[in-house]
Structure formats: C-alpha cells, structure tokens
Amino acid sequence: MFYLLIFLLGIAIGSFLNVLIDRLPQEETIMGRSHCDHCEKELEWNDLFPIFSYIYLKGKCRRCKKRLSFFYPMVELITGAMFVGVLIFSSNNLRGSPIAMLKYGGSISDSLLSIHTNFLYVLALLGIVSCAIVIFFADFKYQIIPDSIQVALFSFSFLFLITQGITPQIFLDHVLASFITMLPILLLFLFTKGKGMGFGDVKLAFTMGFLLGIVGGLAAVYIGFIAGAVIGIILILLKRKKFKSKIAFGPFLIIGFLFALFFQAQLDQIIRSFYSY
C-alpha cells in the first residue's frame, strides 16, 4: 500500500514534469493551466488526472479530438516507477533506523538527526531523478537542456553529498571530478564546433562528475557513449537517421548517469574485476 501511494505521488509529479519538459525549452511560464498542443484550449479539471485522463479520453483532446502525445503518460509512468525504485533503493542504503537507535541506547537527538538526514537523502534522490527525467525528454524532444534544470540538478546533487557527510576536502575532490568528467565532452564540443555535442551536455557532465566522483562520472560518460553509439547504429540501419544526422546526446548521458548512481556497487565490482586481470 505504501509503494502504491508513492507511485501515485510519482505520477502526479510526472504530470508537472511534463509541463517543465514542454515549457522550459520554449521559455514559457510554468504557471497557468495545461492546454492542448493542437487547439491550445485549456484542459478541464477532469482532464488533468495523470494517466487515467489519457486512458479515458483515448489519447485525444476532448475538444479538437486530435491525438495527444504518448510522451505524457510515458513520463508519468516512468516518474511513478522511478519514485518507487528510489524508495526501494533508499531502504537498502539509509543510515540506521531511528527506532533501532533508541532501542540500543542512542539518544533522542541522534534519532531525530537520523530522521532529518534520511529525509534529506530521499528528497535529494527524488529531486535528482525528477531533474534527470526532465533533461532526458526535453533534450530528446527539443534538443535543449534548460539551464534552470541544470541548476536544480546540481543543487539536489549537492544536497545528496551533504547527507553523505561532505567535508571541505571531499567537496574539492568532487569539484575536481566535475572538471575531469566534463573534459571529454568539452573537447568533443570544441572539436566539432558544437555540431556533435551541445554545451548543455558539457554542463550536464560537470554535474555528473560532481555527484558521482571521478570513477563514477567517467563510467557514466562511457556508458552514455556506448548507448548512443548502439542506438545511433540501429537508427541508421532502420533508415530513421542518416550518418550525419544530429541526435540529442543528453538522454544517453542521463542513462549512464542513473546507471552509475543506482548501480554503483555493481559498477565498482565490474571495474575491479576488469583491472584484476
């Protein structure tokens, strides 16, 4: 029941993320009611229930009857699923239970601190995931990564590091990791004069390195390159893209970023086994 509530919260947040995905790249205000992409009529209150309204209306606008983008329910479903995934991930990585701390001699202040830290940990992860979803779909649809989302992602990443007990030395290490992770993307951006890589990708790589560290950041970039190459080859073979066609790279960086974030232990094992030979 708890995870169902988290899923419902996630799809509700996903509905708001759809607004950010469509409006931020076009520099529109995020205030105001949602409207149809075709007739631009404001949606009724009963058209705004995430996923359910889309199913009830059979994916069409109530007024003009034109088909609505399938991206809307997709973003909502992905957000709901990711929120549940974050809670499951967090339950395996959070610090000691506040109740257990009291039971085994911990003070009330320690217990309250644990609650506060755990809450911020989960909040940071949910914020990171939400920003990642916006970046993925905004870049996929418009080939733009809005600066406001970049700032939000960096802020949530910094909050996450705070919950891990960041010190001045650790902070400097992560800043160094930011520049090292950003370097290959920056060089590619300069070499192609912005045609092979956008500067938004450079800024995204900076934040990835800041959160994940040198190893995790470079691994995320590597995974992004592999994913981009595989998908690019498939699209060329299917004749959906030409060899010189421009493909948004942000979504692939996000794939690598989330993989390195949530499967860091497994990634470390793979890297260690690789270098042990």
- Helix-and-strand structural type: mainly alpha
Q: State the total count of DSSP E strands.
A: 0
Supply Rg.
21 Å
Number of helices: 10
Mean pLDDT level:
83
Shape: globular
Q: Which structural traits does this protein have?
A:
0% strand, globular, mainly alpha, 10 helices, 277 residues
List the topology elements.
Blueprint: H1 2-23, H2 52-56, H3 71-91, H4 98-103, H5 108-142, H6 147-163, H7 168-191, H8 199-237, H9 250-262, H10 264-275
Descriptive report:
This protein is mostly helical and 277 residues long. The protein has a domain at 167-277. It has 10 helices and no strands. Helix 1 packs across helix 5 (108-142) and helix 8 packs across helix 9. Mean pLDDT is 83; it is low at 97-106.
Brief characterization of the structure:
With 277 residues, this protein is an all-alpha fold. Helix content is 70%, strand content 0%. Residues 97-106 have low confidence and may be disordered.
